[in-house]
Amino acid sequence: MGILTTFLNRFGKKPQTITPTLPGENTPSSERGSRATPENGLKYLYRTMWVDPDLRQAILDVREMDRDDGRVKKIHKRMANTAVKGGLKLKTASQNKKLIRLWNKFEARLHLDQHQKLFSDARALAMEGNLALQVVVDGFNQVSAAVRMPSETVLPLVDQNGRFKDVHHAYDQFDLTTGQPMAAFALWQLQIARLNPDSWDDMGSLGRPYLDASRDVWRKLRMTEQDLVIRRRQRAPLRMAHVLEGATQEQMDDYRNQVEAEQGEITTDYYMNKKGGVTAVQGDAQLDQIADVNYLLDTFYAGSPAPKGLFGYTGELARDILEDLKRDYFDEIDAMQDIQSSVYEQIFRLELLLHGVNPQQYDFSVVFSERRTDTPNQRADLALKYQAMGIPHEMVWDSAGLNPSEVMSQRKAEEDSNDPYPEESASGPQRVSITPGNQPKGESATSITNQR
Which of 185, 211, 237 is the last residue before a domain boundary? Predict the structure, then answer.
């Protein structure tokens, strides 16, 4: 009764019945208003029989940039490689042996333990702004594959408010040559990770390619670079101006023919018996006058995840400033890791349901093993500090970037093996001493000793 009174005093009316359902299912709820912006809501009314043309054009442009420009290719390649380095891991307690066993089989079946699969998905997320994975269930009632689909052909079937009309028919894939749907997907069949959507709660708002806002600057940069090459080629040669004062046209023609006939060899001397002169016209000697190109280059890399110093354009960039910019880049990579791993976790939750396991009963998450913000030395130093504070061992191993369940299994295998020197092993707990501020940049020095 007290909760109802508080609700009436705050909102002025009785709460309606709220039933937990799948997103988009028409059931009583207290939600009001529209999730989508007015512009997107109007676009959803028009976009009922065709994919988003703006998103498709942005993806096509970014793909062209990736094919034609090594800088763009390097950005996408480095982002993907940095994000997936170290692979995935299941973050859970080691006593959840059934959950760990199901994850190991799931990871091997979907090839999530292979770098090429993770790299392909990460590169698609950066280039397309979306990672659309089709969940394939085989005859053994288990997820057998997570097939990446081209996101520019996928159309979310949402209403004007940005909610799915029917969760059993949530997406269509269009054949762009015929303009007809080629496949339909339920909500569970197509899991999409979105990069920077207009609204995460708006189901019809897909993600955006990472470099979509840099397309215009890239075109200007390429145009300026081409103009620069043409200008250099036209103005590079050294030209000679031959002045024959008072010469007739016939004399000019004879002199010209004589000079041009001798240009097969390198000739620098000219002889004249009348008043005249030969003046050298220099080529384009100011090769460093490319401030416009540098401006466009700086503008382009301002929209990239990393500074241009990480891609070879060091210039006069100071090393300490580069280190600060690298931290910003790693923050971007950490966010990209969270977006990509979330779609794998959602598919794994579906896998647990197919095996009759309630994922809500377990505390777990699917993450990438290596967070790029911290270096391996920093993670090891933090783990040693946690150990000195008496933090449980599994949390210590996790903070060091290790998989606690794998560490436990390896430790047990080592204990069960035949050790020819059992007396040499350390039997007591380890003592960790920390000296704060004993290293550059405020890092601490740690030392470990075994208590016998």
Answer: 211
